[in-house]
Specification:
Order of helices and strands: EEEEEEEHHHHH
Distance between the termini: 23 Å
Strand order of the largest sheet: 1-2-6-5
Structural class: alpha+beta
Strand content: 15-25%
Number of strands: 7
Amino acid sequence: MPEGCPPCGEEAGGDHFTVNGQKVWTSGAHDADVLLTFVRTDPDAPKHKGISALLIPTDTEGVVRRPFPCMTNPQDMDFSEVFLTDVRVPKENLLGELNKGWTVAHGSLGHERTLLWISYAERLEDLIRDAPSDAEWYATLQMDLQALRLLGYQQLSGARNPAEVSVLKLFGSEAVQEASWHALQEAGETSLLHPARTAPYNHMALEVFTDSWFERYARTFPGTIAGGTSEIHRNVIAERILGLPRT
């Protein structure tokens, strides 16, 4: 996480933050005008405390963005690594309260994880369409889709434990990965042909979700990382839903 000093500068009370740090795997950073950045402004505070949310324009001096390609497609330049070197951020760019940025982050992550489980349901539907099989895993795939949607609709209905979205994110991402692995195995040697097409053309769909089985499986791994890794979500479920003690 980048580090930023508390408001500092020439004026009394400070007029800016100075931010230094690096972030890898930032979606679309090279195309963005503004970065929502979470920086540690109190180095002595424990864990989630002492973090502040800043809006940093990408044309600010000291901001460097370096896009890098996906391993399966050199033309896919969605992700960037971002370097921040003595970046001066006006104090009015503080989002929320100083040292209370985790509240902002938590709300943002909740929306992201909801969108993620919905996208995983769509990927499971795609797999049902594109990889019909008589094997047991195909029946499990269909049950996983129904379970994910029913659990998700309950969560969207409100008055639920917010931590339950971790169940959806974890379950959805790993169900897609497991089913994609089975589809790749069942296709045999042809699954390694790349590029290839494993689904009908759809002008509304991203090609990455209809490409070779190798690419479709390889791209399931970001799903177990984005929006919090599977390990993080298992901890959230254990502590906030099952009530288990922290280790």
